[in-house]
Amino acid sequence: MGCITKHYLNEYTVLGVWKIEEDIKTLLDSVVLEGEDKKKYKVFASNSRKLEFLSVRALLAELVGKDARIVYNKNNKPFLKDGSRFISISHSHKLTAILLSANEKVGIDLEYMSANIGAIAFKFVNRREKITKEPEKRKYHLYLHWCAKEALYKICDKEGISIKRNITIEPFEVKDSGEIKGRVQTDKINDSFDLFYTRYDNYAIVWTKKNYDKG
Fold first, then answer.
1. Is residue 215 one of the residues assigned to a domain?
2. Does one domain contain both 95 and 130?
3. Structure confidence at residue 91 as a pLDDT band (50, 70, 90)
4. From CA 149, how far away is CA 61, in angstroms rounded?
5. Helices (DSSP H) in 79-180: which residue ranges?
6. In this structure, are 62 and 95 located in the same domain?
7. Residue 87 scores a pLDDT above 80
8. pTM of the model
9. Which contacts of 191-198 are long-range, i.e. CB under 8 A and separated by 24 or more positions?
10. Is residue 182 part of a domain?
11. Is the distance from CB of 139 to CB of 132 less than 8 angstroms?
12. Which residue range forms the structural domain that includes residue 135?
């Protein structure tokens, strides 16, 4: 299947999604692994992890060209080696997503909605947040909260942020696609963010982008 969407959010920002239907050999033949990428790839024991890794490189090549390379900082946050764009990456089950921007920091998260997320909601939903009581929407709503918080965690790039205590998602009406407001409050950050979400099959996808002071 490969790249199923390449969506320009504006002239500086592109969102790409890859559906993994290829085998490892097909993906290996479609990417160029060098140096650190080769070392990382060899460490992976599971085929699913290898497919995720290769799909990220294949999608990146589709979005910005085969010469693009990803490097990681000490917190395992990805960057483009040439520093030309901010990047955020997410993968779950058979989907991989990359958000790139030349002028704004970015965060993206996607999740395959398989687990009984209601059983662990207490770990990430705080008392200021509202989750719908409608049974047919509740699971999706919880996944959107989780993805939104993960996207904000990524864009802030700060150690010590509590998903439950420091990130709050404002109440919103659950639709197939829409907008969310979120706030991150720590000793170093006090900022609000606009997030956008959509549903693809059984996946929840949330992303955000912003120019802000990292503090």
1. no
2. no
3. very high
4. 28
5. 135-156
6. yes
7. yes
8. 0.94
9. 193/152, 193/155, 195/148, 195/151, 195/152, 197/144, 197/147, 197/148
10. yes
11. no
12. 109-210
